[in-house]
Specification:
Strand order of the largest sheet: 1-2-3
Distance between the termini: 67 Å
Structural class: alpha+beta
Order of helices and strands: HHEEEHH
Largest sheet: 3 strands, antiparallel
Helix content: 40-55%
CATH architecture: Alpha-Beta Complex
Number of domains: 1
Shape: elongated
CATH class: Alpha Beta
Number of helices: 4
Low-confidence stretches: none
């Protein structure tokens, strides 16, 4: 009976470790990335797509630029959450990627901001 209990506990420990690794995959990479601001005045009017993926964090956005301003940002792929909507609304309001990170959600915030940056950077070329 004791051997069975030890085996069950070992299996549970392995499952927990694997789960923890899966949940935190990509976090270190995202924490290190820089979010660069983009000169919106240099971008022609249009609709631009950008994406960013690292580990389990993946987002794809569509950014509409009109008259040197972000007119709309739509999340095409990724988790449609209040957090994502809040971050995208703050970027639109600030007309900048240089917004405060959401406390406790820095990695998620950076992942969505990098997707928007990639869309705008693509538009700039």
């Amino acid at each position: 009976m004791r051997k069975i209990l030890v085996r069950i506990l070992l299996v549970m420990a392995v499952i927990m470790i694997v789960g923890l690794l899966a949940v935190t995959r990509g976090m270190g990479e995202i924490k290190k990335i820089e979010i660069n601001d983009v000169d919106l005045q240099a971008i022609e009017d249009g609709v631009y797509q950008g994406s960013f993926t690292a580990g389990r964090f993946g987002n794809k956005v569509e950014v509409t630029v009109r008259q040197g301003q972000i007119a709309e940002i739509v999340l095409l792929e990724g988790s449609q959450t209040d957090l994502m909507n809040n971050v995208l609304a703050r970027v639109k309001k600030a007309q900048s990627l240089q917004i405060d990170m959401v406390s406790g959600a820095t990695v998620t915030t950076k992942a969505i901001l990098k997707a928007v940056e990639n869309a705008l950077t693509q538009a700039d070329h």
